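Quick one before lunch.
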Amino acid sequence: MGRLDRRSFIKRVLQAAAGIFLALGAPQGRPAQEAAGPLVKLAYRALEPGEPVLVTLQSDGTARSASVAFLGRTVVLRPAPGSRSAFAFLGIDLATKPGPHAMVIRVDKATGGTEEIREDIEIAEKAFPSTKLRFKPEYVTPPAELRERIRKESELVAWVMSVVTPEWLGDGPFVLPHPAPSWSNFGQRRLNNEVLQSIHTGLDIRAPFGDPIRAANAGRVAMASDLYLGGKTVIIDHGLGVFSSYGHLSELKVKRGEAVGKGRVVGLCGSTGRSTGPHLHWAVKIFDSRVDPEAMLRLPL
Ligand SMILES: [Zn+2]
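Model of the zinc ion complex:
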């Protein structure tokens, strides 16, 4: 093993509509698509804070496994069901500093040895909207006896999402949990009762009260609980570090541990917890990165 000299393989970076293609071991002068060697492809909507990235390895048979290190985390690409490719998810957290961030892609060859490629990925700056909201004071400055409950619940949610299932449980591309339009308020900076208190880490969908809310993809229910701030909340584990959550529900329709198919009703829309009226709070996390759920719909799964 060991890092190969840069000149011992040719790295090709092609700007394309879908993203960047990185080819390892491609002979010079030939397009990456015809590369003799494994092809690592990044697919994304944008390289900005709050965006998910799908990493796919299309092996020509010479690669045994691959991993990608980016933004302080290393992910191993897992075989995609029913295909010769392998994939993994990366999240560019909402609070990622814009600028160049090193990505290291490592491919273990079937014949032994490792090839490594290092590329600076430029994270562009993104301006998130801001707003002023009015809540009952007990939701903005909760009384002492509730602060402990809120702390414990946020710890529990973090713990639930820290348990990564090392296989893909999803079923094709992500879909909307409800067809109503959103407020496009992912990443919104919020002044709650004049105090800059929070960043909105999900997307609010204008679903009417009582409407069915559906799983955005297949997975396993990791949590179905009533939380002080989030209200009645369902969290689905899709595997490979991807979790989606559905908050402020009026009713829970699934239980923890249950396997759910894509489109399965997980609850009914409501306004439980810290909410100003009926809507769905939809959020997606990739490992500990908070990403825009709408961007998940664009990933070519
Ligand atoms: Zn929300």
